[in-house]
Amino acid sequence: QVQLVESGGGLVQPGGSLTLSCAGTGRTLDYYAIAWSRQAPGKEREAVSYITNHRDGSTYYEDSVKGRFTISRDSARNTVHLQMNRLKPEDTGVYYCAAGGKGSTYLYEYDYWGQGTQVTVSS
To answer: Closest by alpha carbon to 50, among 76, 73, 77?
Structure first.
């Protein structure tokens, strides 16, 4: 139904900023709730943020990123972004976007996944 491709990862210094993009093909991402999750080496994958497919476009942020990360839709480009500010070394990991029927912190709820993009925060 939909294919997802993440981009924008890279190496950034602590305190820096990075914007990730999740581009959809095959169907409008507006149909789906879109989540960003990350997986650090040796750790479980965790939900970081999601934006709902409701009219209000409500958002969720995991406590450790609240106030630093912002998720948003660019419907004209069929893309969802994750703006990451004041990055910390513990933000390092592979970041994945996912699409599902509803916003959820339970990752098994999502039906479609991108390939991931590496984010490394290091001096």
So the answer is: 73
Q: Tell me how far apart the alpha carbons of residues 92 and 69 are, in angstroms, rounded to a whole number.
A: 14
Question: Residue 84's closest CA among 99, 65, 101, 103?
Answer: 65
- Could you tell me if 19 and 119 are in contact, meaning their C-beta atoms sit under 8 angstroms apart? no
Length of the chain: 123
DSSP labels for the chain? --EEEEE--EEE-TT--EEEEEEEESS-GGGSEEEEEEE-TTS--EEEEEE-SSTT--EEE-TTTTTTEEEEEEGGGTEEEEEE-S--GGG-EEEEEEEESS--S-GGGEEEE---EEEEE--
pLDDT of residue 26: 95
Query: How open is the CA angle 1-26-73, to the nearest 5 degrees?
Result: 100
Structure confidence by residue, pLDDT tens digits, 51-94: 999 988 999 999 999 999 999 999 999 999 999 999 999 999 99
Provide the token pair at 11.
């190496």
